Structures
1.
Amino acid sequence: MSSAEESRTPGTGWVGQAIRRKEDPPLITGQGNYVDDITLPGMLHTAIVRSPEAHATIASIDVTAARDHPSVVEVFTGDDLAREFEQGLAMVWSPPGVEIKTPLNLPLARGEVKHVGQAVAVVVGTDRYATVDAAEDVIVEYDPKPAVVDPEKALEDGSPLVWEDFGTNRTHQWGVAGGDAEAALREAEVTVERRIVNHRTAGAPIEPRSSIADPHGDGLTLYSSTQIPHIARFVLAGMLGMAEDRIRVVAPDVGGGFGSKLQVYGEEALMLALARRLGRPVKWTETRSEHMTTTHHGRDQINYVTLGADREGKVTALKARHVCDLGAYQLLLTPFIPELGFPVMGGCYEIPNIQLEFEGVFTNKFATDAVRGAGRPEATHWIEVMIDQLAAELDLDPAEIRRRNFIPKESFPYETPLGIVYDSGDYHGSLEKLLENFDMDGFRREQAEGRERGVYRGVGLSTYVEVCGLAPSRAVGPQGVGLQSAFWESAVVRVHPRGSATVYTGASPHGQGHDTGFAQIAADRLGIDPANIEVLHGDTDQGPMGWGTYGSRSLAVGGEAVGRAAVKVQEKAKRICAALLEAAPEDIELSDGKFQVRGSPDKAMTMAEIAGAAHIPPQELPTDIEPGLEETDFYDPENFVFPFGAHACVVEVDVETGKVEIVRWVAVDDCGPAINPMLIDGQIHGGVTHGIGQALYEQIVYDDEGQLVTGSFVDYALPTAAEVPMFETDRTETPSPVNRLGVKGVGEAGTIAASPAVVNAVTDALKPLGVTYMNMPLTPMRVWQAIEEARGRDGGGPARTEQGRSLDEHGRGAAGSGPTSPGEGGAA
Amino acid sequence: MSVRVSVSITVNGEIKEREVESRLLLIHFLRDELGLTGAHVGCDTTNCGACTCHLDGEAVKTCTVLAVQADGSDIVTIEGLAQNGSLHPLQEAFWEHHGLQCGYCTPGMIMAGADLLKRNPDPSEDDVREALEGSLCRCTGYHNIVKAVQAAAQAGQSREVAA
Ligand code: FES
Ligand code: FES
């Protein structure tokens, strides 16, 4: 037991404690249960044949040789399985008045392929290795067509078309505005304009995706590494033409998601169809190269941003146009992800005039969709970089320009010109606390001394606000921005006769620590030790429907539902207790882990005693008290929640090689009152590292023919332990008025905050050399070229940078010139 | 292609004799033949370290070793790390310091950490970071993993002092 645990009286004050996680004992002993760990009797293996072409018609598929392998059970093409699917994969955004071009998307291609890696056939066999061998013997003939890779070229007249039937590569246009940005820009004393490229990245959880479909009677069970078991069942039942109750989806231990498992994938539908067809369990586990190729990507936007301001640095107008590369198909939320950032476009700042436009573009690449932060990292990146660019233009201190523009604490709840209501905030508070923890004056002295010795260090600030806790259904559902979905969350709290409890949540964790955090929330309301509360999730046959884990929603929506259900149980427990102790229910209080009569602590009952009485009444209870002790809550929030914070990053740049090293990271985050501060810190550490990865190392690169260059962890470099520092975290706690717990999400905050802090720091470091702006990822090559160019020499490579424009936005040259990791050879 | 070979490998103290395909990877031998699913597969290029186990006392990425190469050797997996029902100091430390989130990298991370502590009982932060460079974690940002390894080192040292 940790010291925090020992000092607790059971059932009191668990919330706020850094208790160890309930989920860890199996995971640290090798007893976890991830999908690929599951082997069912008679289970078959599959290998998927994928297109090596980015754009082609399928001339023929010959499966004879593959079928002849002794261990192969069957080989199927798209045509063979056509009748298995009543619909294609789902895309759920239907904004009022806007048409979104959405091609039919089947698990196996029919007739043509639109990106490298598209599935064209599946081999099913009894032996894992032999099935892969057989897949290599499937002969597919392709007639290649021109591929389009650059989203801006894709919008030009005469560009090859990804989908000829649509007659354009533009998927949709969407916009939102408040005030009059055009007029305000005309009147602005200063304007700053940049083209900011937010390149394509991968979610890259360390667990690849895996799915097993198991037929039984007229039903199917799908074990899948998913963040959204309930949504998956809903969508897959529609695709397979089955009633939902005939399909059970189980998400066992899931090895990280980061948005990449917030999806309903073709392979999940395919496994179900194969199991139904063959009457045997069927398994597919993706390889890492399949993950890089055909698990959805994230980001990939070009942001044209203009800020207008007065000479004091007060921002008066913001205009931004976003060109969003969606890839070839629309997955679940593909076209919506860029727009998901819109509520916080404008950041922590009081900007009276805002105009935003979005254009989606088809290219011959895999689809983009949610990756940790999903739209908000992009939004935060450009506003935080632009604020620094404006500060440089006006020769203002980056902290000072922020202070001058922050929405003041007194203005909350604050309605933005876009009609979004920020729930609560204290942006000055988190920045000042950060500066105090950081010691800016000390750093500036050290920086100046360093420069004399040729050591180039810089500091970058990022003060972010993000929007999460997805979400009020009325704001984002059909009657709001038009997602054909809802976003409430469910909880059941059941106290058993001997006094332990089970909590069912509709959220579906994959590392966040719900079992612990939710048990803490329930514990305080039930008077039960969290050790005696089991939290169950991830099984559509257990507990009510829910909406899963993404968008930093689990605590603010799912945890709140747990709290509310537990309060209902507590109220019933008080009534039972009152009846048994012959007191008035309003006189019963939960204190020191006991239900006691106010003022007479000797008259008290434990939850175990009450639960026993609820199930087996020792005497007659009032007739209005039903037997049992179990309550359900469906909670749909009134508003989003808006976590915020301030981060400072110190980098050192080797100006001879362009290598950037993160020297120090200081963060102050505010996600409301902490449920478990240890879990919050963990989310910030991991989130920031994800953002550092994008800023410095990670990039999905396709070449001009649409071939994926970064198909493995050799070329797609995740940060390793050697590339990040210890993180200095701290918090402020500004409660949200939206939910009773006062909490906001924190799963994505670090990622949302991080990338602009890195870019601003590198720019600060290189200021004496005349470098003013660079696009991510800040690989040694790109940084070195920027330095060379600023020194008036031709960097000589493809990554020449102009003011705010990188000619290298698709990464040509970066990954092609060797590993993008600063460590030689990546992580091996 | 499918030449079958007899192997005899000691895994977590027990001799396992099997006839396997000559190309079978050690990770698949452990997971599929023996049902020891603690070590995971996270990549196909020897980058992630999720498959790390000990082979004759040294950490190896078992996705890059053939089962036949391990013939006659002594393997310890995460399942064999706890002794007599009590957790290894690293397992304790990962739990205490929140060194894991999704837990997928954790078995490999702990085995890599155990290897380091055997070679270097008192590693600096940089030593730990360098030793774990071959093990990827997408969840934790490594902060708490580094803390856990250093805490386990401390615990090991104080135990030695006490002994
Ligand atoms: S599975 Fe990635 S290194 Fe072995
Ligand atoms: S804990 Fe999830 S990858 Fe390390």
2.
Amino acid sequence: MTGTPMADLIVVGGGLHGCSAALHAAKRGLSVIVIEKDNAGRHASGVNAGGVRRLGRNYAEVPISVRSMEIWHRIEDLVDDDCGFQRCPQIKVAETEAELETLAKRAADLRELGFTHEVIVDQQELRRLLPAVAPHCVGGLASLDDGFAIPYNTTFAFQRKARALGVQFFEKTHVENVRRDGKDWHVDTSAGTFKGRNLLNCAGAWAGEIARQLGEHAPIEAIAPMMIVTARMKRFCDAVVGGCGRPLSFKQAENGTVIIGGGRRGYPDPKTNKSEMRFSQLRYSAETAIGIFPIMKSATIVRSWAGIEGRMPDDIPVIGPSSTHENAFHAFGFSAHGFQLGPAVGELMAELIATGHTNAPIAPFSITRFANS
Amino acid sequence: MSATTKNRYDVAIIGAGPAGMAAAVEVTKAGLSAIVLDEQPAPGGQIYRGIETSDEKRTKILGPDYAAGRDIARAFRDSRAEYLPGATVWNIDSALGIDVSLGQGSKHIQAGAIVVATGAIERPTPMPGWTLPGVTTAGALQILLKANGVVSDDVVFVGSGPLLSLIAAQMLKAGVKPRAIVETVPQSRYVAALKHLPAALGAASYLLKGMAMMLSLRRAGVPIYRDATGIRIEGNGKAEAVTFTSGGKSHRLETTSVALHQGIVPNQQVTRLLRCEHEWNKSQHCFVPKVDEYFETTMADVYVAGDGAGIGGAVAARLRGRLAGLRIAEKAGRGNAQERRSVTDALMREAKIRPLLETLYAPSPEILAPADETLVCRCEEVTAGDIRKAVDLGAPGPNQVKSFLRSGMGPCQGRMCGLAVSEIIASRRGEPISEIGYYRIRPPLKPLLLSELAALESEEAVPVDLADESAALH
Ligand SMILES: Cc1cc2nc3c(=O)[nH]c(=O)nc-3n(C[C@H](O)[C@H](O)[C@H](O)COP(=O)(O)OP(=O)(O)OC[C@H]3O[C@@H](n4cnc5c(N)ncnc54)[C@H](O)[C@@H]3O)c2cc1C
């Protein structure tokens, strides 16, 4: 490298969150460098289930998720690519009356908070939305204007758009150490040192180490959610479906393949970038899929995979400024549901970094919540 | 040989071709327990397919090299190795636990060591018209010949490689004369290959066999077109003709049946799944797993024997299987150094013909750089041009191209397009293919029924906190 590359903002991590924050920061006129140890989208952001849902989110996340959904509905305006986004209902299926009651309570709670996107559907309506659903399913909770997108294409589109706006990407470049020197951040990497006015930690499952170097405690755990995909099937499902009593994430892609995941985890090895399947657990996802959609008895699996994701003990991310340093920020630990949040979190981080302020309700996501743990 | 009862073995061998059978014989001779898993209903692998049931007539057609498989299969049957036919290995974990589908459900086998003896596959040959009905591979024709003696008439063979002329000659013997052989070996290759001739003379029997085959074809009046370029398969909904240039003239051969072949390459699915390191073999123009002198991969206790470790042919495959077996026995304290040395020597003699063959039959430049409109991934209908466009957008390697275009995501799991995709990306980016790499291979290795996964014997479910909404729904 000739000379030390410098920028207003250095982003560690080229997942969707890193790319999105970089894109939005560039739109605000900041010069941005993204440093990625592998390739953009190599980890959670490129291999996730692609679920774009507001449905079922932790209440603290709902406002940001709702904002993100607005962006998703016009995603092409932002990144010049449709990201494979399909608008469709997301539905949590209740298999018993007790489950339906739990869901009804949630819908009522949300209405109280002023959000009306989650609605209860009765058995008849469920059958209309999901003709192939098993007869024992009694109803569900639906968010009708959610959807799904293609994860890698999305992250790649964010990267390309960011690049077009002048963001520099350094891939296959590992951030080893971040340190403060005067007003600037010095970021030591496998390809030399970078300098930046601001630092953003979007290092996914690896973000704990960056936080540690900033003197902050972030009890992040690497997990490896598992997915399977089937051979193409005749179209039978036009919604993204989840379970209520047992975990499931289920959708049929446009080409007819069915993508199944939900809750079951393999073995992650973040040090080597590898993750290993655990079929003795994944079998439960297969069982649940067949239980809720009997048609799946005849399905054939053609591929399975697991991605490495960062999970916080309370299953909500860390979003916001560093508690120990000025001009340092975090957005990580999305706990297996950060794909949908990508557009809005990038937007609010850029605002926060560029202006020092955001109106987005990020207090619940402060890293300080772990200070005494 | 007994039926499977247990599920822990000192050695699990995947593939019952010459390498797998030989390894099984060696390790059981040394007193180790072994199980051999193979998809096929009977031992033999590709080369000796159907060997136990082939009648005299068919064995004669297929020749003495095929007949040699009888003794190998017999020795294997006589060994104490357990043999599980009709067994599709669909996953192997890093602790060497193997999931195998038996049609009626899966079984989990725990191995102390694994010999991957899954052999080779035909190199993918993307060219105009290669996906038309009526177009097949030479290898697929040979399988028909071996399995039930049925072969099609009027076949135009297109490509290069020793197998091409072998299969054409076998068909001739079977009484179904090929329509023509369209060879893609450039004239200049013969010159280049000459320098390997002295070494290859040590393996003169191979050369003589090859010449005899070509001679028999020519005598029978099978036209052989040399140095063919610009090859296209034409047809409306099915193959109708092959067009090409040879000897300065354009040709058009009408036929409804075309057999393509550009040599064979290691089947990397298992070694890639296990994340063994692979390297690019320039001479063979393919990826091969890195192995030591005993064919142990970079993953301890995982061996790859036979063509899976780089193309060496049937005799070498058997020797490699023996060597791997002897090494496993040695590690278990039951070595036989003298025998091991004699196998190593024999392997070296066997290797002498390879440089000549590899130079002569290097894949045709045309299939390595298919035109933009040529389909590369047949399952997902991705063209060479699509791949080049993705590279131009910034996709750095096969896995990004796969995510972006779905190439390699179909039922064949990338077997049919993997090498071609790496090749196209490498040349578009101007980077060596060794840097570009290959698809990551994910289980299942072969399509698996969802219901079979659901029925897997298993541990208890790890509890998922359903109050944690994210667990219930991604
Ligand atoms: C199988 C699976 C299914 C999922 N399904 C869904 C879903 O349906 N809907 C949903 O909303 N969410 C889903 N998620 C979660 C979602 O994918 C993630 O929350 C989100 O992608 C996280 O984005 P990220 O940018 O924080 O992390 P990542 O995509 O992991 O990006 C972090 C990047 O930082 C890089 N990095 C780390 N350390 C360093 C360093 N020191 N130097 C340089 N680079 C570094 C990494 O290489 C990585 O590329 C799923 C996740 C998985 C694994």
3.
Amino acid sequence: MRGEHRGLGEFLIELGENPGQLRRYRKDRRAALADSGLSPEHQQLLLSGDVKRIQAELQREYPDAKVFLLPGWDDVMSA
Amino acid sequence: MGSLTVVGTGIQLGAQLTPEARVAITEADEVLYVVTDALVALWMERLNPRARSLQDLYAEGVSRRRTYDAMADEIMAAVRRGRDVCAAFYGHPGVFVDPSHVAIRRARAEGYPARMLPAVSAEDCLFADLGVNPGAAGCQSYEATDFLVRRRAVDPSAALVLWQVGIVGRLDLAPEGDRSRLPVLVEYLLEFYPPEHEALLYEAAPYPACDPVIEDVRLADVASAPVGRLATMYVPPSERRRPDAAMLARLGIPETHLR
Ligand SMILES: C[S@@+](CC[C@H](N)C(=O)[O-])C[C@H]1O[C@@H](n2cnc3c(N)ncnc32)[C@H](O)[C@@H]1O
């Protein structure tokens, strides 16, 4: 099902690389996402702006890339 | 002959890389990088297929100092092989990073051209996202462990930025962070601030589509707060410093000119 949609990581890299596209995204997230080619689930996820959930999803997209869970946003150590 | 350019990737993927740093990465014979995020790593390797991570040099139980020496060694080995080397670190490459400075000094000492380019640091993002002007009351910036170990003096009338609070008290790698020494930090801060004084725990967004994570927390409650591994703590001034009348007179500044 994902096959016909664009990858989340690809989209984020493109957004970072293209300041014009980033500006449009910041102005109107919904419109930019509607044109993004991302799956509806990934569009919803990005609308949330929730870093931890986005990183968890990236981890699924790139199962070999361990660093998502390494130094950061998985956050918090249990008390 | 080899050369070294040290660059920062900024904190947020893509948009915070300066045009000059980008060219240093894409045109290097070899890129050695240290980043905190797999997507940034992927992007580095796209910008230059001759890029490789120095992340493996980190190991639990090994002091960060030894790891940093090993990073500088790797960088210098590539320079000595006659390569145009780019070393890329996340944020600003010279801000709260050691191996970048060590490598530059070593390269110059051995006669290689070496230069560091400035970049966007976590503190730069903090000033923007929290709406803080460090010039308004002055700003103290410390590494959290160093702050405690040296009992750094605090001026509560100026802002305070504490780096590496998510691993305070640790000198080695703590991949998941380590909150166990936060009570010591709180105890020390309470020597200077009232317990109800509010600090902000800040994590800048790593990707362009994300929001920063900002937590308000009373100083007394910091030890039980969700302190992320990459969090920076901002403590606003808790008091105002009065201008000194004698100094104003010496400088010829009328008191009415100061807010
Ligand atoms: C080894 S220092 C590297 C700093 C980096 N060179 C810079 O210019 O920001 C790591 C510390 O930077 C700060 N830091 C790094 N990424 C951050 C982020 N996304 N948000 C807030 N602070 C961050 C935290 O205080 C963290 O413990």
4.
Amino acid sequence: MEEQEAQQKDMASKAHADVHADEEDAAREGESYKLRIFRGDAEGGREVEYEIPAVEGMVVLDAILYIQAHQAGDLAVRWNCKAAHCGSCSAEINGKPKLLCKARVEEYGGQDIRVHPMRAFPVIKDLVSDVSWNYEVARSTIPFTTDEQAPFEMYEEDVERLYEPKKCIECFMCQDVCHVLRTHQKHEEFAGPRFFVRNQWLEMHPKDTERRVEYLKEGRGGIGYCNITKCCTEVCPAGIHITDNSIIPLKERVADEYYDPAKWLMRKIRGRRSPKTGQIIGRNGNRNGG
Amino acid sequence: MASITAAIKKPIQRLPWWVGPITVTAVLTGFGIYTMVAVLFFDRGEYANYLSPFYSPPVNSPLPAWLSPAIFVLWLPLGFRATCYYYRKAYYRAFFWDPPACSSKAQQREPRSTENYRGERNLFVWNNIHRYFMYGSFVLLIFLTIDTVRAFLPEGSFGITLGSLIFLVNVTLLWSYSLSCHSLRHIVGGRVDCYSCVTGGNARRKAYSWLSVLNQNHALFAWLSLFSLLITDIYIRLLLAGAVTDLRIL
Ligand code: SF4
Ligand code: SF4
Ligand code: FES
């Protein structure tokens, strides 16, 4: 048992230095970090300054957990995997969304570190915001639909574009940084970058038979509000090129349907072509000829 | 290479948020003013076997002589760039501050009120005709390619001059910019969901993958080709003014 624990400790990267047990080992003699953390709730709050002993390789979540353990037991923070996989610990450091478990304290090289909850969503307490709005949008998304029976036979060349959107860890930092939501509060009419990533996956899936351009343009998607200014791409911890590979391809599909007079004319004359098979599938049918 | 990019990136990231939008505003405004002056006050851009890309292809203009015929051509590349997905990002950020940058501090400076923001739903919905400008731009590119070939034929036979190399770099960057266009990538393969189901699917997939690689550098090509256009035109004007003589290399 002990051996196993020791092994695990060995495996843990320095980025995840265990501040509870090991701080003496890695602690840098006499050095400390200062963090200003938002304390409050939906009603309001203020920044409170905390000072903690510096530990080599420490991430901001380590610092916060240290504060929670030693200085402010009631400090609320959400986290799970501590390995940048679960997307739970999203918050804002110095006004930019970050995964707390991935942001090294040293990166801020002596600057102030100001930690706030994500501001595009209602604050519950301290660093925790209520992201449930995203699940509502998820429910509005037209689900994967097919007339074939799984398991599917699919070719690599048809699915290689689907790997990138699948990397999403649902941290919702792209939603947080998007000015359409954050500054213009279009939560009722705009699905946000995370769901454009989702819709791109669905739309480009070779077995899916649904059409989502109406949803994207006229419906809950509201893709016209996006002005492709790429803040979402800048913050995505999974490195998804949200704007270039999800949003713009979807905007182009919307343009095919709504803003291309030649395409419109062809549809009138010849009928709609299926992007799956290239076959003419009638004037108004869904993509597989329904 | 990666460490070089990282070394450049770090200090850039440390700059205050307004440096980016202000720089873009300055460069684009500068380019706009230069083009206006060139087009309004100079009716020609031809020197020996060089034709400035601003004036290609030459057209017969029914307009008064002081107004350059270039305006009959220029609307096309200008429209192409104005509706380009990359330039859209650049000017929404730089000119409209919508948003000027991504940090919360920068976003607080967005001038439009919550209700007034329409994104690309009102006026900017016109940007959706981008693909038509793209088609036109490829026609123009053919002319520019012919001009480049001519630039390599001083006195009728093959020769390399500084001017011809400038033309070559310029036309290569213009092709790279146009081929990396998002709309082209969509039309070639982005709109197909199942390559193995459509005729010619494999060729389309390959072309799409290749265009996607170019597309990743679209912003870079957008800037480089803007500068190369400028440099080509300035070089010809310097030749016209007799300020420099063309260097013959071969
Ligand atoms: S590119 Fe569009 S979705 Fe992404 S942050 Fe900007 S406005 Fe929002
Ligand atoms: S797309 Fe990227 S930033 Fe957005 S939720 Fe997914 S992982 Fe997070
Ligand atoms: S997207 Fe930039 S040229 Fe088409």
